[in-house]
Amino acid sequence: MSGQSLTDRIAAAQHSMTGSAISKAVCKATTHEVSGPKKKHLDYLIHCTNEMNVSIPHLADTLLERTASNSWIVVFKALITTHHLMMYGNERLMQYLASRNTLFNLNNFLDKAALQGYNMSTFIRRYSRYLNEKAMSYRLAAVDFTKMKRGAEGVMRTMNTEKLIKTLPIIQNQLDALLDFQPNSNELTNGVINTAFMLLFKDSIRLFAAYNEGVINMLGRLISNEVRDVFMA
């Protein structure tokens, strides 16, 4: 348990006594240790999302509760854990998060305990906005753009014009929120923000691919319509 604070150890012990394995795993994934959540805890939580007897609302609410902490480390790691589960967990977690009226309310978050807290708080606010937008995108389109089938037979390449007009702005909004994270290389100073950055980088590649395929599809349909109009003239 090296690197964990006394608060982390007490919280883990409390969850052990109450028999809440999920709460204990969330607590261990979001300790005060300045590093990304440990793989074994993330893997366990992913496993939980695939178990039908596990309450997804309880899991999600436990993560949200951790964002009420005053510590930038705990809050940042709670966001990372949520993002990781969005990416690799069962889709029913994303469905639940997207169904909530509010997800993360961290627009005013500020850890004043140390200089690093001030610096990292900016990225926590930006990161939470992106995750809110990611959930909103799913709510509006009923699909995770980072997981959809790509290529010639993919979703965006076969989508009709009417749906493209509605969908492309949703992807654009999610991309805008992601790109707003904007850390400089000299701001990637610890394992927590580095972990968040890598998850965002993976999302960005998939979002750009989805958006580009949608644009290619739209241009192809416009050109086809123009050619058809020429022959019908």
TrEMBL record:
GO terms for biological process: clathrin coat assembly; clathrin-dependent endocytosis; synaptic vesicle budding from presynaptic endocytic zone membrane. Its main location: membrane. It comes from the Eukaryota. SMART domains: ENTH (SM00273). GO terms for molecular function: 1-phosphatidylinositol binding; clathrin heavy chain binding; phosphatidylinositol-4,5-bisphosphate binding; SNARE binding. Gene3D superfamilies: 1.25.40.90, ANTH domain (1.20.58.150). It is found in: Cell membrane. One of its GO terms (cellular component) is synaptic vesicle. Keywords: Cell membrane, Membrane, Phosphoprotein. It holds the Pfam family ANTH. Residues 14-145 form the ENTH domain. SUPFAM superfamilies: ENTH/VHS domain (SSF48464), GAT-like domain (SSF89009). CDD domains: ANTH_N_AP180 (cd16985). Belongs to the PICALM/SNAP91 family. This is ENTH domain-containing protein. It comes from Seriola lalandi dorsalis.
